[in-house]
Specification:
Layout (H helix, E strand, L loop, with lengths): L3 E7 L6 H6 L7 E6 L6 H8 L5 E5 L5 H15 L4 E4 L11 H9 L5 E5 L4 H4 L4 H18 L12 E4 H4 L13 H11 L4 E5 L13 H26 L4 H29 L6 H27 L10
Parallel strand pairs: 1-2, 1-4, 2-3, 5-7
Antiparallel strand pairs: 4-6, 5-6
Length: about 325
């Protein structure tokens, strides 16, 4: 059995973290609670009230964000010899009793990284706030584009497990420490061609308060996803290897742009002159648009089929 460690970023979760710790089963050998400069001194709270000998409390002198807390926990788990590192939030929204199911694909060598998916069951969605459903649906689409994991949904889900071999190949210092952490980690996993598995789970919504600011998400997430998309396409299709998709993308963009530009320019010119656009102009614009769309769809199909299928831990 692989050595399993759990990392719990801790920030204003004193009302729930003891219950979370109690539900962590014997399959876990070590638990790292990272106090991210919590105003409630949650680290000291855990030291005082938890009798679990597996628990080690780590503390930040300054708040680093959820990503920073998880990175600290990852490093500690690696140093402690963990083969699989699970991340669980301390606010009670994740059921630690699901950890055996979460780590199963990693233990069996079927995946390098597994994550919860709250969208697998339509019945469970009724319990999720409608704003979160819409937000996560939009973020899922952006994430598919920027990471290439087309079969993965619910990218911001923080209930995750990662294999040591993959964790050692990721530049932890480059990961975003904000709430974009999980999405950025998926991007980094795509760069090393890791296999990701979605595990159905049910989210629990109680009296916990989210520290995620919607306004910040609306500004940061689209920009970060766009940057990651451009990086991934460059790394995957131009820096590491060339394929037919490497040609389809720029030619498709060029043809589509030409078709739209030529069509609009021809229409505006004809309208200003008080005459109809010629059949030749319409045909040429239509050909550019149709060919451009076809090439982009072909590139997209290739990208979907290129999602990693052989776990890095088995290579």
């Amino acid at each position: 059995m692989s050595a399993v460690a759990v990392v719990i970023p801790s920030y204003r979760v004193t009302n729930h973290i003891l219950d979370v710790l109690k539900l962590i089963g014997p399959e876990v050998g070590q638990i790292f609670v990272v106090d991210d400069a919590c105003p409630d001194n949650s680290g000291e709270f855990v030291k005082k009230h938890s009798k679990d000998k597996r628990v080690t409390v780590l503390a930040h002198s300054e708040n680093q964000g959820v990503g920073g807390a998880v990175i600290t926990g990852y490093r500690a788990a690696l140093e402690a010899g963990a083969d699989i590192v699970v991340k669980v939030d301390g606010d009670g929204q994740m059921d630690p009793r699901l950890i055996p199911r979460l780590i199963r694909p990693l233990v069996d060598g079927e995946a390098d990284y597994s994550k919860g998916n709250r969208f697998d069951s339509l019945e469970d969605l009724y319990e999720m706030p409608r704003v979160r459903i819409f937000g996560n649906a939009v973020l899922s689409l952006w994430s598919k584009l920027s990471t290439g994991y087309w079969s993965v949904t619910d990218p911001t889900n923080g209930f995750t497990a990662i294999h040591r071999r993959v964790l050692e190949n990721i530049h932890l210092d480059k990961l975003r420490k904000s709430y974009f952490f999980e999405s950025d980690l998926l991007f980094r996993l795509s760069i090393v061609n890791a296999v990701v598995a979605d595990i159905p789970m049910k989210a629990v919504y109680g009296d916990e308060k989210s520290h995620l600011k919607i306004r910040k998400v609306l500004v940061e997430f689209p920009w970060r996803h766009t940057v990651n998309l451009l990086k991934r396409v460059f790394y995957r299709y131009y820096l590491r290897e060339w394929s037919v998709a490497s040609i389809e993308l720029p030619v498709g963009i060029g043809m589509l742009t030409f078709g739209i530009w030529f069509g609009l320019a021809s229409y505006i010119e004809a309208a200003s002159a008080g005459r109809a656009t010629t059949a030749g102009q319409v045909t040429l614009a239509a050909i550019g648009i149709i060919l451009g769309v076809q090439l982009l769809l072909s590139f997209l199909s290739y990208d979907v089929q290129s999602e990693p299928k052989v776990p890095k831990q088995r290579r």
